[in-house]
Design a protein that fits this description.
A: 179 residues, alpha+beta, three-stranded antiparallel β-sheet, two-stranded antiparallel ribbon, B: alpha/beta, Rossmann fold, five-stranded parallel β-sheet, 5 helices, 5 strands, 40% helix
């Protein structure tokens, strides 16, 4: 039988198989792992270094700074209608404050729903006595960085000795390239 | 009575018309993928119309370029009311990475009111379906508002 009708088996199996159409709205579908969807901004981790703004090719990230008594009130806003979802901002964020979620359903009638914002208050650095010996060594690598990014003295005020050498190393080779 | 029948049948089959206003082809492929058997938007009555005069929903992709601007405006004028304009992807809404380019005359909002925005570069086919579903709902509202 399979000689005379070579496609009978295929035809019968297709009759009883499921359709290849995805039943999307009825069965919710999850995006694959590491899908780059809606941006989640963790404002509590941001140090206002401005690296994401510099690397964003469509210029989707904007920052507004408002002076208050407690310090600078910084608002970062990510315009998802302008975003390319390249994840470069998240890659360059040294504090991991930008995260790409797997939420792909970015549909809105009002485009203000597609803007992700986060506000935090950045306190001015507390001036304290610096030991005389390590001070010039600390200052030297920080100097070219300060001219490139005005937010550079951030690691000093956080008073954490560990991340301080990390940041000039990351931004150091970047600065001469720009100049 | 005949009109009533037409109204009832058009409500369940919003035909879409696709305008490429200088897109990179990414969003266009996703929109076509939505109409293929795998995602099959024709389950919900969405059908690609051959002419803007048959369309209910207009899907625009791409940052409006200088070459496509006049053609876009001319095409949009031919779409009968009620119509819903969907901007697909980041480009029509903002220009994306092309914004500020010498040949970019966008965003689309300058020329026509955008009803539904689907963000993504390019949006997932599921997001496109969600956007079209919202557009169909909006179309229904607009049609009812026109009846009164």
């Amino acid at each position: 039988m399979s000689f005379s009708f070579p496609f009978v088996r295929e035809a019968v199996s297709q009759l009883f198989s499921k359709p290849s159409t995805e039943r999307f709205p009825f069965v919710p579908k999850e995006a694959p792992e590491r899908y780059r969807g809606r941006i989640i901004f963790h404002a509590d981790r941001c140090i206002n270094c401005g690296m994401c703004i510099r690397v964003c090719s469509p210029g989707a990230i904007t920052k507004t700074v408002e002076k208050t008594e407690e310090g600078d009130k910084v608002t970062m806003s990510f315009d998802l209608t302008s975003c390319t979802f390249c994840e470069t901002c998240a890659d360059f964020c040294s504090k991991d404050s930008i995260e790409m979620s797997r939420d792909y359903a970015m549909v809105a009638q009002d485009s203000s729903e597609l803007i992700v914002t986060g506000t935090f208050i950045k306190k001015p650095p507390v001036k304290k006595a610096v030991p005389p010996k390590p001070a010039p060594a600390e200052e030297a690598p920080a100097a070219p960085e300060a001219s490139a990014a005005p937010e550079a003295p951030a690691p000093e005020d956080s008073a954490a000795p560990a991340p301080a050498p990390e940041e000039p190393a990351g931004a150091g080779p970047e600065a001469p390239k720009e100049a | 009575m005949f009109k009533k029948l037409v109204n009832r049948s058009t409500a369940k089959s919003p035909w879409i018309y696709h305008i490429n206003a200088g897109s990179c082809n990414g969003c266009d492929i996703e929109l076509v993928a939505v109409l293929t058997p795998r995602y099959d938007a024709e389950r919900f009555g969405f059908k690609l119309a051959g002419t803007p005069r048959h369309a209910d929903i207009v899907v625009v992709t791409g940052p409006v370029t200088a070459q496509s601007k006049d053609r876009l405006i001319r095409t949009l004028e031919q779409v009968p009311e009620p119509r819903v304009i969907v901007s697909l992807g980041s480009c029509p809404k903002s220009g994306n990475v092309f914004k500020g380019g010498y040949s970019i005359e966008g965003p689309l909002e300058k020329y026509v009111h955008v009803d539904v925005t689907v963000a993504g570069c390019a949006p997932k086919p599921e997001a496109v379906i969600a956007g079209l579903a919202q557009a169909a709902q909006l179309l229904k509202q607009k049609r009812e508002a026109m009846k009164k």
